[in-house]
Amino acid sequence: MLRCGKRALDLSRPNVMGILNVTPDSFSDGGQLYRDQRLNIDALLARAEQMLAEGATLLDIGGESTRPGAAPVTENEELDRVLPAVEAVAGRLDVVVSVDSSNPTVMQEAAHLGAGLLNDVRGFRREGALQAAAASGLPLCVMHMQGEPDTMQSAPRYDDIIEDINDFFGERLAACEAAGVAAERIIWDPGFGFGKTAAQNFELLARLPEIATQGRPLLVGLSRKSMIASVIDRPPLDRLHASVALAMLAVQRGAQIVRVHDVCATVDALAMWSALPHGMDS
């Protein structure tokens, strides 16, 4: 079990994290929770309740788009987007709420409102982020990204993608422990689509068992990503089947948490995987 604030996450089985983007410009579903340029809390709660009913065990709330080429938002913009969403979902639903942010103030305020997990695509490398995360007492999801969202897809290069990611995780583990974050509070995310070409993403997926997790959970986000379009020419909203297939492949290769837009289909597919007699040849 992973303690996530007032709630706990059972890591003995695959977990599905539903994506709740409270941004008007998300690459996949931007603006769907907005009305008259304001976040619609009723629509947000309806989406959250649906994902929970479909089997999500975590909901990830993000207020800054990190799609390739995305520009940063101001701190006040992110606070205005994220905090009402966290307060509404954490206060009314029995689910672990993850906050997708690199901003120390957002982390601190979201933790006070009931967030159970802090999820940072920048690996808690911004000034003050690791200190704020450590003070929260919450588990952290530390993601690998080469570059920043506005530059990360400008010809990313690796000597060996697995070695480079493992080196990054080793450095971040040391930084987390120095800040007072025990290894037991850490989740790793290798960062599919963040500073990686399509070919590099598929190599990473194929070699996922080589990621050195130090016994910690591995979170993978492949849902609707552009690596799918490199194989089959589909717009984001038409990548359901491929996304479910990638989630299944990730779990087979060691991921304990998959971050997805399409909860029901992913939960059903993983239920079939879980029904297999694991440890036997198939």
Describe this structure in words.
With 282 residues, this protein is of the alpha/beta class. It is built from 9 helices and 12 strands. The protein has helices at residues 41-54, 75-92, 104-112, 129-136, 161-178, 198-206, 226-229, 240-252, 263-275; strands at residues 2-4, 7-9, 15-21, 34-35, 38-39, 58-62, 96-100, 117-120, 140-143, 186-189, 219-221, 257-260. Strands 10-9-8-7-6-3-12-11 form an 8-stranded parallel sheet. The chain has a two-stranded antiparallel sheet with strand order 1-2. The protein has a two-stranded antiparallel sheet with strand order 4-5. Helix 2 (75-92) runs parallel beside helix 3 (104-112), helix 3 runs parallel beside helix 4 and helix 8 runs parallel beside helix 9 (263-275). The chain is globular. The mean pLDDT is 91.
Overall tally of structural domains: 1
Tally of DSSP helical segments: 9
How much of the sequence lies in strands comes to: 15-25%
Radius of gyration: 17 Å
What is the third-level CATH name, the topology? TIM Barrel
Low-confidence stretches: none
CATH architecture: Alpha-Beta Barrel
Overall strand count = 12
